[in-house]
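Fold it.
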Amino acid sequence: MNFTLVYIVQDNLNDLKQNLAHNLEKLGLYGDIDCLIVDDGSVENLKNYLNVHFPEVRYLKNTFQEGFNESLFKAFNIVKSDFALVLEPSIRIDYCDIRSICDEMLNNRFFISVLPVISNVSKLPFFFQLFFNQGRLDMKHLYKQDISGSKLRIFISEAMIFDVRRYHISGGLNKTYFTALYALFDLVFNSFRLGWGIHSTHLCSLIKQNKSEHFFSYLHVQDDVYRDEFSFIWFNIRSSRYLISYFFGLFKVLFSFKVKQLKAFILNMVMWPFIKINRIKPRWHYLNDHDLLSAG
């Protein structure tokens, strides 16, 4: 069993410098660890820094800033290990028993282990949860003590371990999403449709050292979040109950004069025939609300 640590670096070289050596040392306690860093854009002196201090680390540079989704998609195309830990650069690992986590994933046919991250703000380990709220998709922090083992919750974090073989079988990350949030929610959601479990673990302690509200160091424009909400529903939900509740939610948007949300919806209505679904289509049947996503 072998592992790869994957970083997507946009403009946070200082975070990487502070944590890379420490994190490699901590993970190296549990076996050989490969490391791949994707330079999304032009991170000044990153290649030179790695050549001098970490010559064993693999480096991949985008010709221009392509965003998190494209960068992670490229990274998985060249990862050769059994498991990959995708980590936000400002996260510092106190401990992470990656071997035991991956053994548990193999034994239980889990596709992803989502690691709770302790925020400098809340001081509590948390995940990001996706749920329905009055006909619309919504996100909130889901704290570790609230995880009950239910497979109904769709949750992600800024530290996730993937079974690489299953990742490729699934078709991988859907690059048509604008935000990393919805791209990862989509991947988690579809893993359930394939019958693969998502796991939260207590065999780690990870601390996000900066107070940024960015997700994987990317700031998401609100228009893109609204557009991805529509795309997620269009890709994944073939239920009249969902669609009806969603359109009722849009009427609320219309009559509250929330122009940005309405603009994003109209744009998606025009664009949806041209959106590609970048994965195999699993066979599944129509389910009710609580069988797919938890309700807010």
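The CA atoms of residues 6 and 86 lie 5 Å apart.
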